Amino acid sequence: MSEFTKTPGWLDWYAGPSQPRFQVPEGAVDAHCHVFGPGAEFPYAPERKYTPCDASKAQLYALRDHLGFARNVVVQATCHGADNRAMVDALVHSGGKARGVATVRRSVTDEELQAMHDAGVRGVRFNFVKRLVDFTPKDELLEIAGRIAKLGWHVVIYFEAVDLPELWDFFTALPTTVVVDHMGRPDVSKPVDGPEFELFLKFMREHPNVWSKVSCPERLSVAGPKALDGEQAAYRDVVPFARKVVEEFPDRVLWGTDWPHPNLKDHMPDDGLLVDFIPHIATTPELQRQLLVDNPMRLYWPEEVKG
Ligand SMILES: O=C(O)c1cc(C(=O)O)oc(=O)c1
Questions:
Q1: Is 29-304 in CATH node 1.10.10.60?
Q2: What is the side-by-side order of every strand in the sheet holding 253-254?
Q3: For residue 106, how far is its CA from the centre of ligand 1 (angstroms)?
Q4: Which of 8, 65, 157, 243 stands 20 to 30 A from 109 (CA)?
Q5: How far is the CA of 228 from the centre of ligand 1 (A)?
Q6: 54 catalytic per annotation
Q7: Could you tell me if the ipTM is greater than 0.90?
């Protein structure tokens, strides 16, 4: 029994997701998902901002198989702070089918970084979303970035669109590939060709080392409809934003379920219907293959990519 009590109002992941109508290409990678605990085995961090339901590696890999994916990238969830044991445990029990993104502090040793590398970690996450983490000084993050660059890792950044101007100089100084979570959380009630999203596109245009996950329509959508009850046109207000990024930067985009969808307040999506969102944003088999196979393989399993 876990001694943890979930944050009030917590929504658990959707049990019994539907079978997607969209068949993902062979070898597809779910490049953004998490494990939570289980808390009794891998306790949540004292400094966490939320306490989730448990979401184990076995449940994650069952979802992978159900949706038709071949591999996962497991991103350290903030409820585990810089204790990467649950994520690393998921990687080492994946049979080589999962890679990971860790959260580390400057106190991490080279031996610990190497052990994580051996387990399949290929990146660190810097989080600037204030409801999720306490502030970390930029000099500490730059020091970490310099160290992990030597391992060939990349930096994943999570921030809100309104904070991009202030973070621009820091982001553009990072010495690695930089992967933006959830398109930098655009406000999709604003125009897709308005100044806020244009700044994000400019960030990607001017910096060829910047990639984006075109994930989390369930988080970004304002007008819906929700991916529930067989809805095949879910989150249509997010489509123009994600489609724009996929079409302009087809070789620098990734997609992930974001399972088990931390901190959703309004509803929990049916992950099968979330997969059916993909062909609305990557509209040709070629774009779908780049998004789901070629790009994540190049970033996370480069040794398996020929030529
Ligand atoms: O928006 C969020 O609440 C959220 C949280 C986390 C995390 O807690 O790690 O990860 C995500 O990708 C998104």
A1: no
A2: 29-33, 71-75, 98-102, 121-127, 154-158, 178-180, 210-213, 253-254
A3: 22
A4: 157
A5: 21
A6: no
A7: yes
